[in-house]
Amino acid sequence: RAHAMCAPELANAAWSLAVSSELPLSLVRALNARAGELGPGAFSIEERSAVHQYFLGVQLETRPPADALAPAELRDACREAIIVQSPARSSQLHLDVSAMLSRIGVAHVNELCVPRLGYHVDIAIVP
């Protein structure tokens, strides 16, 4: 069914798989092939962000062979979508942890963007 998915359907399916940690290689190949056919322009910025999370999950969980990866142009566009978006507002718990770290003198940064990964880290301890 992946071969017939439109961009929003693919983004939702990919994100769902990423958070479930169920990433069978046959499905990864099918989703990546379809995403490559659609290309970056078919996805909204939010959809590219969701697909990027899926790409990260695939890389971390399955370490697929190169021929199973989505095209580099699409992977780069999806990573860039995360980088250019501001992270969601910090939760109260996050703010409380940050305040405690400050009180005990731990240098840290909130909502740090890691461009190479294309991800925002809630709290990063800095040297």
Outline the structure in words:
The protein has 127 residues and is mostly helical. The chain has five helices and two strands, in the order H-H-H-H-H-E-E. It has a two-stranded antiparallel ribbon. Strand 1 (108-114) and strand 2 form a beta hairpin. Helix 1 (7-20) packs parallel to helix 3 (45-61) and helix 3 crosses helix 4 (72-84). The radius of gyration is 17 Å and the shape is elongated. The chain starts with 6 loop residues before the first helix and ends with a strand. The mean pLDDT is 89.
For the termini, the CA-CA separation is 48 Å
Global structural class: mainly alpha
Note poorly predicted spans.
none
> Total number of helical segments?
5
Radius of gyration from the alpha-carbon trace, in angstroms: 17 Å
Q: SSE order, as H and E? A: HHHHHEE
Average of pLDDT: 89
Biggest sheet overview: 2 strands, antiparallel
Strand content: 5-15%
Into which percent range does the helicity of residues fall? 55-70%
Spatial sequence of strands, sheet with the most strands: 1-2
Number of strands: 2
